Amino acid sequence: MATVAIVGTFDTKGREFDFCRDLFDRQGVQTLMIHAGTRPATIPVDIDGSDVARAGGADLGELTEDRGRAMAAMTLGVTSIVSTLYAEGSIDGVFSLGGSGGTALATAGMRTLPVGVPKVMVSTMAGGTVSEYVGTSDIVMIPSIVDVQGLNSILQTILRNAVGAMVGMLAVERGHDADAKPHIAATMFGVTTPCVSRAQEYLEDRGYEVVVFHATGAGGKSMEQLIRDGYFVGVLDITATEWCDELFGGILAAGPHRHEAAIDARVPQVVSLGALDMVNFGSPDTVPAHYRGRNLYPHNPQITLIRTTADENRQLGEKLAEKLNRATQSTEVFIPLKGVSAIAVEGGPFYDRRADEALFDALEKGIDNEHVTLHRLDTDINDPVFAEAAAQALIDLIDTSKGTH
C-alpha cells in the first residue's frame, strides 16, 4: 500500500487537511501527517511541529513570536524529514495545500525528492509565476481557485481532483528498465534544432539515450541539477543562449551557475555556442527602450529576439571561457565559423560576421586551461557534419572517462 506524506500547517488548516486525509483513506492510500506549524495541530498528526522544528535546528517554543525565524527553521525541518522518510522507503509521494507560506514550506520538502516521485501542491500561488516553488523539480502545482480557508464546495472540488491526481500517480507502475541505456543531456533551441536532432540520431544509433533540454532558463537549470544528481554519462551542451539573457536582461536566463555542473561532477561534456546571437524578450512592446533601435526579429508573437553586438559577444566569449577554465578533465568546445544559429548564417536576418568573430576571439583568448580543446569548424552549427563531429567527440570523451575510473 502506498503512503503519502501530507505536509502542512495543521494549526490553521486542519479541517482542509483532514478532508484530504479522508479522501486518501477511501482510495486505500496511507497518509503520514507532518505538522509544520508552530502552534498546536487541530487534528491528529504523525510528526508534530516540535519534531519539525528540532529537525530544523530550533526549539519550537522559541519560534512562535518570530515568523521569519520560524519559517526558516520549519522549512529546513520539513526538507530534512521528507528526504529522510523517502530515503528510508517510508513514503511514496508528498501532498500539500496552502497559501504562500504553506506553499513555500511544503515545496521545499518536495524539491528534495528525485524526479518521478509524485508531488502535488494545491496553492493560492499556482495561478502566477511558480518557478520559485517548483525550481528544477517536477512538482504539480494546482491552483486552489479560492483561498484555502474553509471547505466550501469549490475548494472541495479542487481537493478531490488533486487527491485523485496523486492517487493516479501512485498507481502507475514504476518498475526498473533492465535495458536502460546510458543517458546523455543535450541543450536545444528552435534555431539549433537541426544540429541537436542529427546529434541525437547519431548518439542513439550508438546505444545512448539523449535527453533534450529546451534552453529557456528553466531548461538549463533543470539540466544542471540532473547532472549533479548523477543522471547522465555525458553532456552535449550545444546551446549556450541562456548566457545572453543572463548578461543582458533577457527573459530566459538560467542564472550565474550555468555550465558548472558537468565540470563539478566530472561528467564528460562537449560545448558549443548555439544561439549566442540573440537576447530573448516577450512581445515587441516588452522590449526595453534602449534595445528598440537594434536588429529585432519576431520569433513568434510572444518572443522577440535582439541580435547581440560585437561588444556583447565579446562579453559572452569571456564569460564562457571563465566557466570552462574551471574544468579539471578533458572538455571539447566546437566553434561553428559560419553561424551559431539558423538565422545567423550568411543571408539570414542575424548574420553579422564581425559580431561572431568577437565571440570566437574572446573565447579563444580567454581559454587558458590545458584540459579544454577548441575546434573551429568551417560550417554553421546546423550542418550535419558539425553535429556528427560534436557527437563523436562526446562518445570519445565518455570512452576515455570509462578507462580512467
UniProtKB/TrEMBL annotation:
Boundaries of every UPF0261 domain copy: 3-172, 181-397
Domain of life: Bacteria
Residues spanning the membrane: none
Region forming the signal peptide: none
Gene3D superfamilies per UniProt: Uncharacterised protein family UPF0261, NC domain, Uncharacterised protein family UPF0261, NN domain
Protein name listed in UniProt: UPF0261 family protein
